[in-house]
Design a protein that fits this description.
seven-stranded antiparallel beta sheet
Length: 518
C-alpha cells in the first residue's frame, strides 16, 4: 500500500481511494455511541444550565458542573423526525452540539477526573445515558505526564480529556474515505470542547503528540478498533503547558511505559452483527503512531503565498458577545433550504475575524521562538456581498482584509464540482474553503500530519459554524466537492482546500424536533 498515494486519493480522487461498488448495510449499522457492559456508572445531572452567555470565574468543578460541561460538549441534545416520502418510514436523527458527517459521530470522549465528589480515575462519557462509566480507578498523573513527554503539569489539572476515533462507526458507510472524515469530526468536537471550556472557566491545551500505545493501553482500547487522536488537559490552576521542554528529558517509549499498568478487559455492546475489515485505516493509523518521545516535534509555520494583489479592507470589528448555549442550539446545516440574501460587509468581517480569533489556542506544535501563522486558512467565493465585487478571495487575518484572487460569479463552477447536488450553491452568498498544506505536513510530522491538519480544519469549521449561527446564518460543511477545481479557482500555491462550507440565510426546515433539555 502506497500511503502517500492513498492520502492524495482521499483528497483528489475519492472513488479511487474507496473500494468499488461499496454499499452500506443500514440494517446492520453500528450505534452512534459506545456502550460498555458490566462497569460502575455515575449518573450525571440532566438539569443543565440553559445559558452560557458569559465566561465563569475559574474554580474547581464538582460532578454536577462536569456533567453540564460534558453535555454541552458531546451530549445528545435533540431528536428530530424527518419524512422523505409518503411511503417511507420516518428517519430519526439524534443531534449533538458538534455536527458530524452523516450524523454518525465516530469519535468517543474519555476523561481522567480528579474532583472532590468522585473517585479518581479514567471514565468514558456515555452520551446515550448522560453518565460516566468508570474504566480504571486510581491516580494516573505520572503516567499521563510521561506519555506526553513531561510537557504538561498534569498534577495541577483537575481533568484530562481524550478524544478517540472508532473506525467502524463511519467506515460502514463511507468506506476508506472515513479516514479523512474521522480527523475532521474529531476537530469539530475539539472546537466545541474548547469553546465550552472557556465558558466554564477552564484553561486548556491541545496535545497532538503522545505515546499512542501507552495512552490506548491506559483507556483499555483495542487499537484495531479505536485509537486516541488528541489529549486536552483542563485546569483552573497555574499550569505548566510548555510545548518546548522535551529536550531536557530522557527518551521514553510506549513499551516501557505500558509495563507500569496491567491491561484491563472491558466488554462493550456492538450492534453490528458483521464488522468488516478496514486494513487501510489500520495501516495508516499504525504509520501515524508515535512510540517514542524523541519523535515529538515542533513547527514554525510560514505565511500562505497567495496569488493576488488588490486588497479589500474590512470594517473594524469587536469580539461578538453571544450565548454559546443558544447559538449551539439553533445552529443549522441547510441543504436545499438556503435562500439568497445580501450579506453586509460588517457581517462578513465579524464572521471571519471572530472565527479566526477563536482559532488561536494553546497546543504542542507551535514553537515559542517562531512566528506561528495558523496552519489552516480561509478562502472564499463571495456573491451579493455589500460593496465587495463578486469573486474569489483570501482572508488575511493579520491585516483583517481580503486579498482578491479573481473577480466573477463562481457559484455555477462550484456547483458543478459537487459530487451530490444536496446544496443549491446558487442560493449561497458565501462559499468558504478551509485550506492547509497540500503535502499534509508530511515532511515535518510524518503521517501524523495528515490527521492533525484535518483536526485543525475541523476546529476552524466549528468556529465558523458557531459564529455564523450567532449572526443568524446557517452553514453546511461539505466534503463531496472537487478539491482540485477549488484549488485552481484560488490559484493556490502549496495549499489545498480541505473542506467547503456554504454559509447564508435559510428557510426553516419542515421537520418534527424536540429538545432534550431538562
Amino acid at each position: 500500500m502506497n500511503l502517500d498515494q492513498f492520502l492524495r486519493d482521499l483528497q483528489f480522487n475519492i472513488e479511487r481511494a474507496n473500494q468499488q461498488n461499496w454499499e452500506p448495510n443500514w440494517e446492520d449499522a453500528p450505534l452512534t455511541y459506545k456502550l460498555y457492559k458490566g462497569l460502575p456508572v455515575v449518573p450525571l445531572s440532566g438539569e443543565v444550565p440553559l445559558s452560557l452567555a458569559e465566561n465563569k470565574t475559574p474554580a474547581k468543578p464538582g460532578i454536577e458542573e462536569i456533567g453540564h460541561f460534558l453535555w454541552y460538549v458531546y451530549g445528545i441534545t435533540q431528536v428530530s423526525e424527518s419524512f422523505f416520502s409518503d411511503d417511507a418510514d420516518p428517519v430519526h436523527t439524534y443531534r449533538r452540539h458538534a455536527p458530524s458527517g452523516g450524523g454518525l459521530y465516530p469519535n468517543e470522549l474519555y476523561v481522567y477526573l480528579k474532583i472532590d465528589d468522585l473517585p479518581e480515575g479514567i471514565y468514558h462519557y456515555d452520551p446515550a445515558h448522560h453518565r460516566l462509566v468508570l474504566l480504571r480507578a486510581g491516580n494516573f498523573d505520572s503516567y499521563i505526564a510521561a506519555a506526553l513527554g513531561e510537557r504538561c503539569d498534569i498534577s495541577s489539572c483537575f481533568g484530562t480529556v481524550f478524544i478517540s476515533t472508532m473506525f467502524w462507526k463511519n467506515f460502514f458507510k463511507y468506506n476508506n474515505f472515513s479516514y479523512r472524515l474521522q480527523g475532521l469530526d474529531a476537530g469539530v468536537l475539539m472546537g466545541q470542547l474548547l469553546a465550552t471550556a472557556k465558558r466554564f472557566g477552564f484553561a486548556s491545551g491541545v496535545y497532538y503528540q503522545y505515546l499512542d500505545s501507552a495512552i490506548n493501553h491506559l483507556l483499555g482500547l483495542c487499537e484495531k478498533e479505536e485509537s486516541v487522536y488528541s489529549i486536552i488537559p483542563l485546569s483552573v490552576e497555574t499550569t505548566n503547558w510548555s510545548a518546548n521542554s522535551k529536550d531536557s528529558h530522557n527518551n521514553l517509549t510506549s513499551a516501557e511505559l505500558v509495563r507500569e499498568l496491567k491491561p484491563v478487559a472491558l466488554k462493550r455492546h456492538e450492534r453490528s452483527k458483521e464488522v468488516l475489515e478496514f486494513p487501510k485505516l489500520i495501516t495508516l493509523n499504525e504509520a501515524a503512531k508515535l512510540e517514542s518521545t524523541e519523535s515529538f516535534n515542533r513547527l514554525c509555520n510560514q505565511p500562505s503565498e497567495v496569488m493576488g494583489n488588490r486588497q479589500v479592507s474590512l470594517p473594524r470589528t469587536e469580539s461578538i458577545a453571544f450565548d454559546l448555549a443558544e447559538v449551539s442550539k439553533k445552529r443549522s446545516s441547510p441543504e436545499m433550504d438556503f435562500v439568497l440574501s445580501s450579506v453586509s460587509q460588517q457581517q462578513l468581517a465579524d464572521l471571519l475575524k471572530e472565527s479566526m480569533s477563536a482559532f488561536s489556542y494553546r497546543n504542542d506544535l507551535n514553537g515559542i521562538y517562531c512566528s506561528n501563522e495558523p496552519r489552516v486558512s480561509i478562502y472564499g467565493c463571495f456573491y451579493n456581498v455589500e460593496a465587495i465585487p463578486n469573486g474569489a478571495y483570501y482572508y488575511n487575518q493579520a491585516q483583517h482584509s481580503l486579498q482578491e484572487i479573481q473577480q466573477g460569479d463562481h457559484r455555477l463552477q462550484l456547483q458543478t464540482g459537487l459530487s451530490i447536488d444536496n446544496v443549491n450553491l446558487m442560493q449561497v452568498p458565501l462559499c468558504l474553503h478551509v485550506a492547509g498544506n497540500k503535502d499534509f505536513l508530511r515532511e515535518e510530522l510524518g503521517y501524523r500530519g495528515y490527521r492533525i491538519l484535518q483536526m485543525e480544519a475541523g476546529m476552524l469549521v466549528q468556529n465558523l459554524l458557531l459564529t455564523a449561527s450567532a449572526l443568524g446564518l446557517g452553514g453546511h460543511p461539505l466534503l463531496g466537492f472537487d478539491a482540485g477545481r477549488a484549488d485552481e479557482l484560488y490559484r493556490m500555491i502549496g495549499n489545498t482546500s480541505l473542506i467547503q462550507i456554504p454559509i447564508g440565510s435559510f428557510r426553516p426546515r419542515q421537520w418534527l424536533k424536540g429538545s432534550l433539555h431538562s
